[in-house]
Design goal:
Blueprint: H1 5-12, H2 19-29, H3 36-51, H4 54-58
């Protein structure tokens, strides 16, 4: 499964230590997202993550989208 740059960046903003953790973190965070469009993007991405398997998820490199903690 292929992610867009926007989707990859969005997943990286959540706990992406595993596919399950990402889905759970997105579900927990949905209620705190005020922007309607962003909330819908997170919902769609959560559903997309649910359709893939853990092996596919682990192949995605989220490190290029993580913020540098030294900045």
């Amino acid at each position: 499964m292929i992610f867009t740059v926007e989707e990859t960046t969005l997943v990286a903003a959540f706990d992406h230590s595993s596919r399950g953790a990402a889905v759970m973190d997105m579900m927990a965070g949905l209620g705190m997202i005020e922007d309607k469009e962003l909330r819908e993007q997170v919902r769609r991405l959560k559903d997309k993550l649910k359709t893939m398997n853990d092996e596919e998820f682990m192949k995605v490199d989220f490190s290029v989208y993580e913020e540098d903690e030294n900045e």
